[in-house]
Amino acid sequence: MIELSALRKVYPSADGPVVALDGLDLTVGRGVVHGIVGRSGAGKSTLIRCLTGLEQPTSGTVTVDGTTLTGLSEKQLRAARRRMGMVFQHVNLLDSRTIAANVAFPLEVAGVPRERRRARVAELLDLVGLGHRAGAYPAQLSGGQKQRVGIARALATEPAVLLCDEPTSALDGETTRQILGLVRDLRDRLGITVVVITHEPSVVREVCDEVTLLEHGRVVQSGPLTEVVTATGSPLSRALVPVPDLPPEARRDLVEVTYATDDVATRDAFAAVAALGDDVEVLSATVEPLAGRRVGRLLVDAPRSGTDAVVARLRAAGLDPVVTGREAGGPDPAAGRREGVT
Predict the structure, then answer these.
(1) How far apart (Å, rounded) are the C-alpha atoms in residues 290 and 256?
(2) Do 70 and 83 form a contact (C-beta atoms < 8 A)?
(3) Out of 110, 121, 287, 320, which could bridge 296 as a Cys pair, Cβ 3.0 to 4.6 Å?
């Protein structure tokens, strides 16, 4: 559905070339909700501009729904963009138009006859739960309702791909959950492919099937959400399911264990630790919802002389332990929690 191959974008500047995307390869399958995360300057904004054809890459190719965008004429690009819907952080509704007229706008641009526009707008507003507000104006809506209108507008031309650029960063927690639930529901109903650009790990946990971490224009980590999260000690694993707070008195080796509750029940994970004896204990633990699944993480305090045996026995129990103790020379277990993916 979406394929980026050796994608490179370089901007000229007074201080020399600035590489925004550096040989990026990425594939997103049909019907998938895929999150793109990374710090400011990682290349997220440039990536979405290349996806929409607003930026032409320096080299490499962008293919969306079977059409390679690189090298198309402006007329061909306009036609290709109709197969892509765009949801913005700031919804950018036209204040002088009603909600129905805002949703109808891309259909007007596409030359759709008036009666077909009316029917399509009514269908879309019902789909996002705002059929009763068709005659309202943007100033009369809440932030969440405005974003619903933005989603309806993005779907007007029946796109195959929905691109969401920080769609919930201006919303409160409960409204964010409602909007993300709507996005997943629309994906399930319509079978569209969704790409979500975000700096919020909670958004990825809530809505995404897959996730990619960008750093300096390159893919650092990418894959299905549960696979990425259970890659113990990896950047995305720690950002999406943070390492639990570490008690300050802990001074022995620490063993970090991550598991998907579909595969290992939480009680079984704790039982595996309890079976190691009185000298081994769980210092802290967390279980996070993850796109309809749950992932657990434990920090286990182990005696230095017996750490290898602890790791071996936990692996034998079906877990994936990694030694992360500070005194063992590993990274600070709280580092992933502090750094996140902003």
Answers:
(1) 19
(2) no
(3) 287
Are the C-beta atoms of residues 154 and 194 closer than 8 Å to each other? no
Give dist(CA 201, CA 237) in Å, integer. 10
Residue 152, amino acid: A
Q: What is the set of domains in the chain, with CATH numbers?
A: 2-224 (3.40.50.300), 230-339 (3.30.70.260)
How do residues 66-108 score in pLDDT, each as one tens digit?
999 988 888 899 889 889 999 988 899 999 999 999 999 999 9
**Segments of the chain with pLDDT less than 70:** 244-252, 291-292, 325-342
Under DSSP, the state recorded for 111 is: T
Instruction: Determine the pLDDT at residue 247.
Output: 59
The 3-class SS string of 162-220 reads EEEECCCCCCCHHHHHHHHHHHHHHHHHHCCEEEEECCCHHHHHHHCCEEEEEECCEEE
